[in-house]
Amino acid sequence: MSASDDVLRVAVFGAAGFVGGELLRLLLQHPRVGDVCAVSRSQAGKAWSATHAFARNLDAAPVFVAPDDPAFERADVVFAALGHGESQRSVAALVADDPRLLVDLAADFRIRDPDRYVTAYGAHARPELTADFRYALADVVGADLEGEAKLAAPGCFATATLLGLHPFRGLAMRRPPVSFAVTGSSGSGATPRVGTHHPFRATNFHAYSLEQHRHEAEIGDQLGQWGAAFADCRLLTHSGPFVRGIHATLHFAPAEPVTDPQALLEKAYAGSAFVRVLPEPPELRAVTGTNFAHLHATQQHAGEIVVTVVIDNLVKGAAGQAVQAMNLALGWPETDGLQQLGLAAC
Amino acid sequence: MSASDDVLRVAVFGAAGFVGGELLRLLLQHPRVGDVCAVSRSQAGKAWSATHAFARNLDAAPVFVAPDDPAFERADVVFAALGHGESQRSVAALVADDPRLLVDLAADFRIRDPDRYVTAYGAHARPELTADFRYALADVVGADLEGEAKLAAPGCFATATLLGLHPFRGLAMRRPPVSFAVTGSSGSGATPRVGTHHPFRATNFHAYSLEQHRHEAEIGDQLGQWGAAFADCRLLTHSGPFVRGIHATLHFAPAEPVTDPQALLEKAYAGSAFVRVLPEPPELRAVTGTNFAHLHATQQHAGEIVVTVVIDNLVKGAAGQAVQAMNLALGWPETDGLQQLGLAAC
Amino acid sequence: MSASDDVLRVAVFGAAGFVGGELLRLLLQHPRVGDVCAVSRSQAGKAWSATHAFARNLDAAPVFVAPDDPAFERADVVFAALGHGESQRSVAALVADDPRLLVDLAADFRIRDPDRYVTAYGAHARPELTADFRYALADVVGADLEGEAKLAAPGCFATATLLGLHPFRGLAMRRPPVSFAVTGSSGSGATPRVGTHHPFRATNFHAYSLEQHRHEAEIGDQLGQWGAAFADCRLLTHSGPFVRGIHATLHFAPAEPVTDPQALLEKAYAGSAFVRVLPEPPELRAVTGTNFAHLHATQQHAGEIVVTVVIDNLVKGAAGQAVQAMNLALGWPETDGLQQLGLAAC
Amino acid sequence: MSASDDVLRVAVFGAAGFVGGELLRLLLQHPRVGDVCAVSRSQAGKAWSATHAFARNLDAAPVFVAPDDPAFERADVVFAALGHGESQRSVAALVADDPRLLVDLAADFRIRDPDRYVTAYGAHARPELTADFRYALADVVGADLEGEAKLAAPGCFATATLLGLHPFRGLAMRRPPVSFAVTGSSGSGATPRVGTHHPFRATNFHAYSLEQHRHEAEIGDQLGQWGAAFADCRLLTHSGPFVRGIHATLHFAPAEPVTDPQALLEKAYAGSAFVRVLPEPPELRAVTGTNFAHLHATQQHAGEIVVTVVIDNLVKGAAGQAVQAMNLALGWPETDGLQQLGLAAC
After folding, report:
1. Which residue in A94, B59, D70, D280 has its CB near the most CB atoms, within 10 A?
2. Is B239 on the interface with D (CB under 8 A)?
3. Each residue of C232-278: pLDDT tens digit?
4. Taking CB atoms and an 8 Å limit, are D199 and B193 in contact across chains?
5. ipTM score of the complex?
6. pLDDT in tens, D193-239
């Protein structure tokens, strides 16, 4: 899992999707990555620029390669940005016998409890592999990721919600917290669908999957891993008329009142490279295109806490966090390649 | 309060704002309204079309008049779309001695409990007048509004939340319901501000006023008026990157489990002219520009109910509901002038 | 083509598309239309509301019918909102032997010159039928449409451009006018595509079909029909990040200078029901959802004229103009069912 | 104008505006800039983060300083992002006696011909200073900027239009080219106005300043400086419902036909660091947030050329081009600090 030279060769599976594209973008601009191999079954042989508009800005005109391309064998690190359920079939060979760092961005290896997984996603083809993976919520786990070889990058809703719950994990709750979360259209992927058809999405807002607990399973599993003083969190997911980002509003009531919830946030994220605690409810626009998370907490009524969280779903909620996890796993500076600040006029 | 002829003369105070403009638009297209007088202190003497783009479509080129214009005296019905706190000063004369129908769209006369009002809005100049007003949540109160002379039109957040709570008002709750509500930029009014500056708003999402309970006061007051089995509702307000609409997601847990929450919605709104109960979570785009409300309820976990509600903030949440209330007060068909269905391709 | 009673029965072919949906919406609200039959091959038997969100607001739950449904036989008037090339096959039977009013909204019967048609669209299956159709640019042809039985409703780009050129049709030009035109995403139809995928469209702007002269053919053919003093107009088409509307900017240089181009607009559209001449360049938002067109003309440099035009692509540029043409053909008031003014707060 | 060490100290005047903010963002991420001093008269003493959301991501909490702050004296390079007309008063002292590199981003020193300037902008306070400035259209002038001390950074409309005209500058034209150009809302600056009020802008499109030739003056002056074979270009400016970017469509007819206009683009920009010539009309989304320009040319009709250009108005059209010009003036790699590629999923 170490890079033989001071530049790393990286392969990205599923490079034609949105998360794959963001991985390419970030890795190309990473100071320690020297070679990026984009693997895509559907686009093999075609130019990146046909799929990813940003690639029109490159000097070179790189092309996607097939999974059996020799460039993949040469890679020092592998990112897998495949569909949920696909990773367990496609990347299994990379787990048992392959010492290289693998960062998987699907849901397949995020959930330790097999029952939770099956309830949320159905049967798992290789459940025994899950134990090899470390859940890489980078801003919480931090340097403990160093030396890990198999990482499961968290989902975007789980990242936003868990960052908000982490500072309060030791508190018993009078009832499960509720996370009211909104995602942009890029969360639905690169394939055009009814729900992301511009005439329908541009001015729309709606809830979805209110009874489907996929992301709740991931959050609940992690609360269990943490040994949190509460077992569950309700997640209410919504689609908003913007392209990028997750906004989560958490409402909960600790068994013992908390008088200064901001202080708990500040303590939990003191010295954090990417998590900022703000004096006002955060704005999505401030983190768009970046690996930063902004949080705020307040007491609404006596004993009730409201935490608000914003992240970019594709960076902090996917590709950025995965690169951060790679940095931490390899013992590199956590911020390498991830210091884009966001645009000024938005 | 009756119209001497079969066409009504209507005056709109505060006609240069967004709610005022929507009132003008709806009243101009109302089959029983023959004359619409637009009163605006700031725009008196100027053309409607300088303020309201839709007025460029009119054959005529009407102008705003000042509050002391004789047209106001001749009006059969008065709508007041003034700022909160302004109504109590400006329309007081219309209350005590004036038998004409007055529909006030500010917060001034919505809250019966003086303490709640003062806590939320500060001192009231004429608190004794509030008792003369009927809270006109038109789809709930319905024909009971007939003959009323002074109506307080509900706020947009309160309308969305109360429509969602009404079917469950008889149920004791294990804790106060939480309403996560999102508004479009038109809710902030016609005056440009930082929060509605296009470069900042177009891709943004954020919570606001998390500790400020103005709209909670209105909701709580109404729950009290209803004699609901629960006293309070938490309201968490958010700004979304769309122009029109309110989406509210209500989460609550009745003391006694409810197995079929949709059935309660259907029962409460059977035969309703404007409230539709849908089999899926509603979409904001379906009600934009209309007086309709769409609702859906589901059980998320055993004993926990999620209700989702969409309305157009300026129609059902303001001008449309006010016109509907006028129709009901005058004994006219509830749907007169309010039958626009919304656009097909959005 | 006359309605036997005072309410008309209307059938809409292709009712599941965006133009079809707008026809349904407008016809449902038309005071002289009593029955609307929505024909869709793909959606036959399914509820309108599954396709058209606005239909969730209806009391009833109408369903689409198949083309062989008897309701079609009973219809007094037929609208065809089919794909280009499909009309010439599907509605041919309605032309020769069927005296009913047919309004076709495809390109199939808009272009009188067969060579122009073939160059732009390829071979025509029934070119001999074109002579039966009248090109229904309603705001220009007006009452001359009365008694016509077969109407070809103009395309959206052609409508915007021709409304701008009409007042100047008698002037020789030093070179062909150029129309720089922008359309919203609803112009690409109801089927999700890459170009209307929200993540790609929401912040995008680009030109397309710069060498493809389909709409130029329609415009040029009409200039010929008019006997205009110039034969051609260049059309440069663009996609903008909005849902509805066409904005066209025309730049041209008459052979003889025109000192007051606004006066020519005002003269051409004096007394027009739907065309407004404004003192400033028009704004798209003022006509969204309406059948109105706004125009403005100015002299940029000595001898060069700039005309700007806005319309809603699906109303004035499609369904609204088609209903207006029906009104005119049947000798009804031109504005019946088309008086929606647009929303105030946008 | 040289930096004494290998890190440069830079001051930005007008740092609280959008262009100022983008300068801060780019300079903070520039590998050779060690210190960025943000000067703002109105915000002096306040945190950057109160004005610029991106600054919430910084570790530190920098504050704006007043113009008389000693940090300004220490700066090696000065950028002025002041309002048009303000630079000629405020930065004059930096011109005559101050050898430091000054990059001015206002219109004040862009136009060499005093008559053109006065016609477009009114009287100039210090017209004699203009001769000291070099017009820094970086992708055209390139290494010729090395050693220059006073640079006038081009305007955004002029940049887009001139990049499109440059490859054709040697060709006589049958008439002045026409540039139809569209800008996003960030082009109107950070102060909320009616034209950038979200409810009005979100779905709007309109032309403006059709008779006002400010940007034409800049373009025409530059054509003169170039000794181009044509003297003028018409500019028709429009506002679109997006935040960032300029799209320009140029239509012109050379006196001698050009059969392969793409070849001229490719020749003119061979080896360019930031200009890409694409096989299809470019899309705005591909350059958002970057310093890249994308161009395409095609022949529409025999002898008529259409060139399309996209840039980010605040980067390539302002701050990015200014930093690029600094790099070139100082003899540094042109791309330093400017290699952001844009986001993948948009």
Report:
1. A94
2. no
3. 999 999 999 999 999 999 999 999 999 999 999 999 999 999 999 99
4. no
5. 0.96
6. 999 999 999 999 999 999 877 899 999 999 999 999 999 999 999 99
Q: Which residues of C touch A200 (CB under 8 A)?
A: 53
Q: Which chain C residues touch D236 with a CB distance below 8 Å? A: 180, 249, 251, 300, 306
Q: How far apart are CA C46 and CA C42, in angstroms?
A: 9
Q: Please name the residues between 295 and 324 in chain D that touch chain A, using a CB distance below 8 Å.
A: 314
User: Is C198 within 8 Å of A185 when comparing Cβ atoms?
Assistant: yes
Q: Please answer whether residues D22 and A345 qualify as being in contact, where contact means their C-beta atoms are separated by less than 8 angstroms.
A: yes
- Give the whole-angstrom CA distance, residue B16 versus residue D220: 43
- Nearest residue of B to residue D194 by CA position? B192
Contact with chain B for residue A175, Cβ under 8 A: yes
Distance CA A198, CA A221 (A): 35
Distance CA C232, CA C179 (A): 11
Which phi and psi angles does D209 have, rounded to 5°? 50, 40
By Cβ distance, the residue of A234, A241, A283 closest to B206 is A283
Residue D193 CB-half CA count within 13 A: 9
Q: Which residues of A are catalytic?
A: 156
Q: List pLDDT tens digits, range C327-338.
A: 999 999 999 999
- Residue C75 CA to residue C9 CA, distance in Å, equals 5
Opening angle at CA C28, ends C26 and C30, nearest 5 = 70
Q: Is C196 on the interface with A (CB under 8 A)?
A: yes
**Chain A residues inside the 8 Å CB shell of C242:** 202
Instruction: Give the pair of three-digit tokens for residue D76.
Output: 């090696």
The H-assigned helical ranges of C108-240 are 114-121, 138-141, 156-165, 198-201, 214-226
3-class state of residue C290 by DSSP: coil
- d(Cα A122, Cα A221) in Å, to the nearest integer? 16
Q: Looking at beta carbons, which residues of chain D come within 8 Å of A340?
A: 29, 340
Beta carbons of A196 and C197 less than 8 angstroms apart: yes
- Could you tell me if A224 and A169 are in contact, meaning their C-beta atoms sit under 8 angstroms apart? no
CA dihedral C297, C298, C304, C310 (to 10 degrees): -40
Interface check A203 vs B, CB under 8 A: yes
Interface probe for B, chosen from D22, D197, D205 (most Cβ of B below 10 Å), is D197
AA letter at D288: T
Cα gap A285→B206, rounded to integer Å: 9
Residue B185, CA distances (Å) to B288, C145, D194, D251 in order: 13, 43, 13, 38
Question: Shortest CA distance to B314 belongs to which of B160, B191, B178?
Answer: B160
Phi-psi region of D271 (alpha: psi -120 to 50; beta: other; left: phi over 0): left
The answer for residues whose C-beta is within 8 angstroms of residue C35's C-beta and 6 or more apart is C7, C8, C9, C10, C71, C75
Q: What is the token pair recorded at D175?
A: 């008439």
The single residue listed with the structure tokens 């709740």 is A216
With the C-alpha atoms ordered C227, C230, C231, C236, is the resulting torsion angle positive or negative?
Answer: negative
* pTM: predicted TM-score of the whole model, two decimal places: 0.97
Residue B270, class by beta-carbon neighbours within 10 Å (0-12 exposed, 13-18 middle, 19+ buried)? exposed
